[in-house]
Amino acid sequence: MSTIEKRKKILITIGLFSCIEDMDDDEQRRKKRKWSKNWLLERRKFSHMTLLRELESNEPADFKNYLRMENHLFYSLLNLVRPHIEKQNTVMRESISAEERLVATLRFLATGRSYEDLKFSCAISAQALGKIIPETCWAIYKVLRKEYLKMPDNETEWKQVAQDFKTLWDFDHCLGAIDGKHILINKPPNSGSYYYNYKGTFSVVLFAVVNSNYEFMYVLSGINGRVSDGGVLKETDLYKLLMENNLKIPSPQPLIQNQYELPYVFIGDEAFPLMENIMKPYSENCAGHDEHIFNYRLSRARRVVENAFGILAARFRVFLQPLNIDIKNVDAVVMASCALHNFLRRNSSNYYTSVNQLDIENLDTGNIIQGQWHHIGEMVPLQRTLNYSNRNAKSVRDKFKQYFNNEGKVSFQEKMINTR
After folding, report:
1. Is residue 200 exposed (0-12), middle (13-18) or buried (19+ Cβ within 10 Å)?
2. Which of 34, 99, 173, 358 sits at 20 to 30 Å (Cα–Cα) from 370?
């Protein structure tokens, strides 16, 4: 006879039946108290890893769609992040493997599903996912940033960026296309209107500089959505380095021999100020023929940043809905996704960004065929606002306009502005 049964027999003898009921309740609670649910303990049996093995062996296209990358790139990435996310088994339980952690993170980025929803396919608790996914995102960013998310740091590298823009997009002296997007979030507790944006939602701003190959060179995440969109640039260290002349960009040079010198510039849209090193379009309300030519040439080159953001959101659909995660983890998700974008763009461009996913100009008809990302959804753009400009900046823009309408013109520009 067990100790509990002996105690019950004594209590029955002395008539303390209520105490017996209390003991029964305590015993039931002890039985129910478990550190994890059975199906979570049997993760290998119930998780999506079995499905992934089947896809890898027999359906490679579905494998790519599931993780947004080909299997050899997945294992290459896994080898890079493994030292940063792998955990040791304990006497209590087997740890969640580095592979499971990476798969769960990639699936979260690809779908934007909540931790509560994702736990059923991963067989990992929502509480564990809340730690695993941000940790893995930071690991992805850490291992990829030096090679795949790097801004030029000398004149030679900047000149190569400019040469690529001239070759591919017919815009001379261009150091990159700049833009920003609002990353929607659920309102953080006790944050008031700190993250409240012009759309009436809550967000942080992602600011980026993109090269001619649709790759992010510079990314800054975390500017609160309340900052006026025209002031986003001033919140970046890029702006501070530019103002202090510490970006190591080339000094002004003539576009053609024996012509006036022009600075190297970043190009943006109406959300940004016109500065000597930042070009934006002329206002449509007061633009004549030559101004329309300049606007077209700038828009053509600036399209790389629009497409980069569009592809990012189409491939990592976590950005197409408010991020339902702790505000301190938003930057991890954003930075990892941008690093992955470059990693896949450079190593798997035919799959990650096939031709039909990009905006394409038909130079015969003058039409622009929109990429597929337009039909999936887009991140909230920065608000177009009136921004200051100085006389020197206007003079620089006028000289670019003059060049694009004369020595630097391209054969198709007249057709393109006539169809707009």
Report:
1. exposed
2. 173
What is d(CA 165, CA 267) in angstroms, rounded to the nearest whole number? 11
Element (H, E) at 130: helix 126-148
Bridge-based pairing of strands 360-362 and 367-369 is: antiparallel
Q: What is the DSSP string of 166-200?
A: HHHH--TTEEEEEEEEEEEBPPPTT-TTTTB-TTS
Phi, psi of 226 (to 5 degrees): -75, -25
Q: What is the pLDDT of residues 198-223, one digit of tens each?
A: 999 999 999 999 999 999 999 999 99
Encoding tokens for residue 389? 């400009």
Alpha-carbon span 358 to 369, nearest angstrom: 8
* Alpha carbon distance 85, 420 (integer Å): 51
Rounded CA separation 404/299 (Å): 13
β-pairing, 265-267 with 174-184? parallel
CB 216 within 8 A of CB 338: yes
Q: What are 223's strand-pairing partners?
A: 205
- What is the helix, strand, coil percentage profile of the chain, to 5? 55, 10, 35
With beta carbons less than 8 A apart as the criterion, state whether 217 and 151 touch: yes
Instruction: Report the C-alpha gap between 277 and 318 in whole angstroms.
Output: 34
Spatial neighbors of 93 by CB under 8 A, at least 6 apart, are: 36, 41
| Whether pTM exceeds 0.70 | yes
Report the relative pairing of strands 265-267 and 278-279 from DSSP bridges: parallel
| Spatial separation of the C-alpha atoms in residues 37 and 123, rounded to whole Å | 10
Structure token pair of residue 311 = 């592809």
Burial class (CB in 10 A: 0-12, 13-18, 19+), 251: exposed
Cβ-contact 204, 191 below 8 angstroms: no
CA distance 98 to 367: 47
Which helix H or strand E contains 29, and what residues bound it?
A: helix 17-32
List 180's β-bridge partners, or say none.
207
Check residue 217 and report its DSSP letter: E
Q: Cα separation of 81 and 70, whole Å? A: 17
pLDDT digits (tens, 9 = 90+) for 108-129: 999 999 999 999 999 899 999 9
